[in-house]
Amino acid sequence: MIAKKLINRYKELKQQVPDCILVMQVGIFMQVMNDDAHTIAELTGLQLQMGGDVNQPVVVGGFPHSGLNKYVGLLVREGHSVAVALQDEQKERHIREIIRVEIQKL
């Protein structure tokens, strides 16, 4: 089961980058939720699961950090802007930065 604190943190970060697909690092995994999870699943076949509580369910997907370049590359090639929230190595579960990857329109 996914922790409510993690869900809330994802939602907070998503508000900072509403125009991007948000991929958030959680340990050695990258997590996506709700609409972002559906978008990635449609393109890659990523398996999704339900999390949260009964009254406020959340769709969750994830992949190993080692697959980050693959997934971000695919999303950008498909025309999506992506924001990657990376953790601080020294402070577990603390987001150190958000990196935006966008396609430039010519």
From TrEMBL:
A Gene Ontology molecular function term of the record: ATP binding
Positions of the DNA mismatch repair protein MutS-like N-terminal domain: 6-101
InterPro entries in the record: DNA_mismatch_repair_MutS-lik_N (IPR007695), DNA_mismatch_repair_MutS_N (IPR016151)
Family annotation (Pfam families): MutS_I (PF01624)
Superkingdom of the organism of origin: Bacteria
A GO biological-process term: mismatch repair
Name of the protein described by the UniProt record: DNA mismatch repair protein MutS-like N-terminal domain-containing protein
Organism this protein belongs to: Candidatus Thiomargarita nelsonii
Lineage: Bacteria, Pseudomonadati, Pseudomonadota, Gammaproteobacteria, Thiotrichales
